[in-house]
Amino acid sequence: MSYKSPIEDFKYNLAMLxxxxxxxxxxxxxxxxxxxxxxxxxxxxxxxxxxxxDSNKIGDREGLKYVTDGAEGPEVHTPERFKKLYDAVxxxxxxxxxxxxxxxxxxxxxxxxxLAGEIGIAANMAFYMxxxxxxxxxxxxxxxxxxxxxxxxxxxxxxxxxxxxxxxxEPQCGTDLGLIxxxxxxxxxxxxxxxxxxxxxxxxxxxxxxxxxxxxxxxxDAPEGIKGISLFLVPKRLDDNSRNTIYCGGLEHKLGINSSxxxxxxxxxxxxxxxxxxxxxxxxxxxxxxxxxxxxxxxxIAMSEISYQNALEFAKERKQMRSVVKDKQDKDSKADNIIVxxxxxxxxxxxxxxxxxxRALCIYTAMKIDLAEDHPDEKVxxxxxxxxxxxxxxxxxxxxxxxxxxxxxxxxxxxGSGFTKEYPLEQYMRDVRITMIYEGTNGIQALDLVxxxxxxxxxxxxxxxxxxxxxxxxxxxDNEEISSFIKxxxxxxxxxxxxxMWLMQNGIQDPENALASATDYLNLVALSSMTYMxxxxxxxxxxxxxxxxxxxxxxxxxxxEKIMPELNMYSKKVQAGKSSMMDMEVAEF
Amino acid sequence: MSYKSPIEDFKYNLAMLxxxxxxxxxxxxxxxxxxxxxxxxxxxxxxxxxxxxDSNKIGDREGLKYVTDGAEGPEVHTPERFKKLYDAVxxxxxxxxxxxxxxxxxxxxxxxxxLAGEIGIAANMAFYMxxxxxxxxxxxxxxxxxxxxxxxxxxxxxxxxxxxxxxxxEPQCGTDLGLIxxxxxxxxxxxxxxxxxxxxxxxxxxxxxxxxxxxxxxxxDAPEGIKGISLFLVPKRLDDNSRNTIYCGGLEHKLGINSSxxxxxxxxxxxxxxxxxxxxxxxxxxxxxxxxxxxxxxxxIAMSEISYQNALEFAKERKQMRSVVKDKQDKDSKADNIIVxxxxxxxxxxxxxxxxxxRALCIYTAMKIDLAEDHPDEKVxxxxxxxxxxxxxxxxxxxxxxxxxxxxxxxxxxxGSGFTKEYPLEQYMRDVRITMIYEGTNGIQALDLVxxxxxxxxxxxxxxxxxxxxxxxxxxxDNEEISSFIKxxxxxxxxxxxxxMWLMQNGIQDPENALASATDYLNLVALSSMTYMxxxxxxxxxxxxxxxxxxxxxxxxxxxEKIMPELNMYSKKVQAGKSSMMDMEVAEF
Lengths: 589, 589
Description:
homodimer, alpha+beta, Butyryl-CoA Dehydrogenase, subunit A, domain 2, seven-stranded mixed beta sheet, two-stranded antiparallel ribbon, 20 helices, globular
């Protein structure tokens, strides 16, 4: 089991995406040039040593203990090792790195969280869910809560002293939050919350003294459906350190992320305070959600990377069969390292070529989020926000679907060994599988893309993206050195345009057409965005002589030759429409 | 958790594939018309009741116990429930159903084993690996062993009193059996075998008194490599019931199939008897292997089917969100069953449309195997054998790759519930993952297809298949009622022809080109074969009015509209060749 942080690739992407120029436009980040950023990331990344990797396996095997007869109610015990690990994470400044210094944070750009996050997730995905979700909770409090609540809770959250959660789902509703039944009754200066929440990650644990829950519930006078949902802050411990009446009712037993507590949370007149406006809970919730969705996409990328590294290590050592090319045969052995075999290379390159493009797209989106939040020019902010809003469901869904396939493909490189618990690949595959489901299933991401992002502001979000790609094409159409990337990008843009047209025409006539093709359309736009990233990488690398530049051109060539045929396939699937699935009667399934 | 044997679909396929006409040509199976066949299958299929399904979950959770201090050496204990289950399997006649009556078998066609096998595997894949592998061992003994060995071992194996295994892999060689080190030294009337075998399924267990191992090893005078491998029969117990010196050295801990013992087997001067000719062990081994490969493909199909059934049950019950079509909304509820949603239907139809085509192809191949073995006309035998030889690696690889994706897609229908151990989907996905690896990884299947099957007899195998499809096209080109299937089939055949041409030309010039494109080529031919199956189903169903006929036409329409775009994608990938993966230096990965 091994892992090396992809520091060099991070640096490459920051340079390729003109990070320094972009960040220089934002006053508050003027100290955070790429060098500073990378030193912060490396500082946090230093955690990722054998200790973290080992804790990942221990966490999976040992799992969690649910103890019903704790001193103050049911308790969830994490593996012993996790406490030391969490202390190290606190000390490193990971938790509050991007929070304002006013509340004890590091004041770093959001991009930092994406780079450092990839390292943490790769090392121990289940464990890093805790700090990751806490970040979403902090961000929501920062943007929506009163000054009083911010002053009271944020400093202890940014330091990692306390952790935060998101409490959304109930037994009758996951996707469909309009069906929420939990109630919040006003009383004195606060509310009293009652109800049951399920699938609450890190809802209860022993890593921090206090846990700050953000809970969706209904006030007595609330209208029906999602327009009657409000958001509340419900701490595990109240000001006097007494226990609030929110308790863990049990843990889920799962395929993976065994050391991430997935809790049933029962509230019985638990004290809570409103966050944001009454009945505007969904809006506040989406602040958490968008942050979380991007990071779930990042989980797909991180797990692809560590799976790839482990498969590569195996492929360089395992000897089996002969190369068909005499010159490539190892004369000192009866068999060759399996990395000589084309089919093994095919698997490795599938993972490598997609992972690097997904990473570039994710870092680019993170930079756009920094621009959207803090650039002085409103037009820049708006365009950046459009880009991030468009890419969030794409990154969440595509990078997790692919992340799962990449973990499976990496496992396959190991053959029978990959199926055993002696190697970490089987755990990576089990762990990453949840990313396709939580924070909105990938089907829901596709509906968000087609139903919301594509139609908002008269289609401006996608049009801006198309313009950006078109501009790149116009600027580079005569660049002979990268013509092998320009043609595929033109093809990709044409396919996006054609499928979008199809979707608009047929989706307006009959919304089921848009819904039936949404997932295929998302994959199409994802692959187009990745093609755009590879074209930019090619342009940036061509004529440069360091190994990474040559490497990028070769890897990008694999992408356009061997991955891009998938793009045209999705385009055809989109335009095949709804009838073949909607004509089926329920009894015919 | 539920499962209903797909009896109706079996009957449909037998009728569609003219089973009765085919089998009537074989004297020894003259009693086995489709009605008799289905009554035998139903008899065996009756096992598949709650008992079997429950044992599957228990087997996964309870797993196996490795006991080092057994009375006669290390023992492997299966869950208590398995003994009752195995007794029921014995009584049903499953184990020896297709063995000759002379040795106590049922004398049924091989097709029986495929139909009954699908039911058994779906109910408990890990458990049914035992009887499945035993069948391969029996078949090898039947075809290759001396009369003495056959008389001594087969009757107890066909009754299920004893089980058989295949002992191939060693630590230094899985794929590359030429590297086998185990030795067999002649002594008196037998050999003494010494060595270590790994990943031996059902190598040790407590379900039968005796276990009959078929072991690959080298005699002292054997030439190097695969031309010096011989096959030996090594029983756990000798004639006097004393223990032979073959012992289980431990069990693997695995991602799935937790109740299938995967054993390290140590031989120390264990007594064995030669099966087949000396140094022709690989040939004998392939008898077991081809049988096993088809059944591994069948595992992919069976697991697709049971995953689909469970996803469907959930989709019909779970209510979440509203249909966009007012008329489809359930007025008595605040949300609709999720099967109204197009994206949920997309997932279900992906599984249904591929599973039914894979099943048809597998049954068709099983019928060809019956023809190849027992038809009086040599030409019929040879053509049938060509077909089976061509399809074996395709079914093994495609149906397991797709089987895994289908289990994952079915899990996705359940959302968060699918990720929990409350539902069986997560186990199905873990169990089915091994099928892509064992009995030759799917990469090896692709090499078998491209390197052996495509080139043997001057390409006759594929040419025969192309001719068969061409004949169907010519006969039906003016059949307006199925024109929506004929055009896609023409396209499929053209793509196969073009990619085969490309492979021949470029693979002869440079074998790495063929190896680099082998997996994509296999998928292309697989999808073409499935398109052919759908075209035949459409032809058979058109104009008929029972529900299954309408169902097939709708499901087939989904296949040609929504799955077939994958076929053209694979064709493009094939023709992209090797350079983008082979140009990478090892250090550049």
